[in-house]
Amino acid sequence: MRCPWYFGWNIVIAAALLTLLSSGLRMSMGVFFLPIANDLGFSRSILSGIIAIGMLFSGIAMPIAGYLVGKYGTRFVLLLGTVMIILSTIWSAMSRDYWNFLFSFGIALSFGTSFVGAVSFTPIVAKWFHKRRGFALFIVSTGSMAGIAVMLPVFAFFILLYGWQNTLVAFSVFFTILAMPIALFIMKDNHAAIDQREQAAVQTQPVDIKLIDVLKTRPFWQLSFGLFTCGFSMNLLGTHGVPMLVDHGFDSVTSSTGIGLIGLVAIFSTLVLGYISDIVQRKNILMLVYLVRAIGFIALVLASTKWQLFTIAAVGGLVWAGALSTSGAITADIYGVKIVGLLSGLTYLGHQIGAMIGSWLGGWAYDNLHTHLVAFGAASILLLMAALSSYFLPKNLK
């Protein structure tokens, strides 16, 4: 007799919750940006550089996390990442100079949040699901969008009352309280209890291949380029979206609300996209995601009224969460689940290289060219190229 509640959904919900917190911290750099810069005396270029270096090390951490998940399991990586987060946030709060802040906030914290992110959760979800893999991974990605919607205004509120240092430490304590029991009691890599619908679908999975063979295939590099663009655009917005809107005349609350609205809308639209992704070709979903984002980035820079800002944010939120989850599902569809953790880590490395460049370019372009149009325009062009590249991906296996 099949259990009425499939345990795999517990993993999906727990992964979404932790992704909400870890991604919420990464994507809320905009509200931390000016308080940190003013308190520590950093210019926008210097702080953007620290964040950019952090994005690079976050990308370096992802293949490592993927390898460790494959060797030791999700639980081990999750616990290790949690320890990294709490130690690095305390260190960051105590830092008063460039080098300490670079190593604590820029590097150590980036490693911690990468270990508790999509690259660690994609393999375990892909193992527990096949027939409904797209929907399951999209649910996990709702955590990322909820992180923008929930954590950005929460951080803005607590930073105003208690300062960025106390807010950062309080976050790490709260995160640890949630992450420890989830790691110990929910994250089970053994999927022997897989239900009948998923078990029947597993028989259709492609044969797993070696990493060296994957690197010789075009789809891997197409997915990597798309995620490079995703990282460039998302972290440009996460780091410089609020400062850009403030520079364009919006107050800080309206700016934070506008960016947060993207995540709020994405929470619900992601579930719809996830359902559709198990019915239609996933590459078409991915192409749509990049195309709508490309239009949204230019529109956001040109917004001059509140209704324009909120309308653009709402439309952008409809497709904001699709890239990571769809790319992860396509990777598992094409190459199988045996090395999906490592492959996800490598493609997410491209994501973080893009994040590094986007975070740096946003600060450099404003300091030197006194405009946000260069960075946000570059994001729009790259997103259009990613949409075109996604169109030529092979049909995914169902």
Give your account of this protein's structure.
The structure is a single chain. This protein has 398 residues and is an all-alpha fold. The chain has a single domain (8-391), classed as Up-down Bundle (Growth Hormone, Chain: A). The protein is built from 16 helices and no strands. α3 runs antiparallel to α4. It starts with 7 loop residues before the first helix and ends in a 7-residue tail after the last helix.
CATH architecture: Up-down Bundle
Distance between the termini: 26 Å
The beta-strand count equals: 0
**How much helical structure, as a percent, in the residues?**
over 70%
Q: What is the SS-derived class?
A: mainly alpha
Oligomer: single chain
- On the 0-100 scale, what is the average pLDDT? 84
Q: Which regions contain 5 or more consecutive residues with pLDDT less than 50? A: none
The H-and-E topology, N to C, reads as HHHHHHHHHHHHHHHH
The tally of helices reads 16
Number of domains: 1
- What profile does the largest beta sheet have? none
At the fold tier of CATH, the topology name is: Growth Hormone, Chain: A
Determine and state the CATH class.
Mainly Alpha
Can you lay out the helices and strands and say which pair or pack?
Elements lengths: L7 H19 L2 H12 L3 H29 L1 H21 L3 H18 L2 H11 L4 H53 L10 H7 L8 H4 L3 H30 L4 H26 L4 H21 L3 H12 L4 H14 L4 H30 L3 H19 L7
Helix pairs in contact: 1-6, 1-7, 2-7, 2-10, 3-4, 3-5, 3-15, 4-5, 4-7, 6-7, 6-15, 7-11, 7-14, 10-11, 10-14, 10-15, 10-16, 11-13, 12-13, 12-14, 12-16, 14-15, 15-16
Compact summary:
82% of the residues lie in helices and 0% in strands.
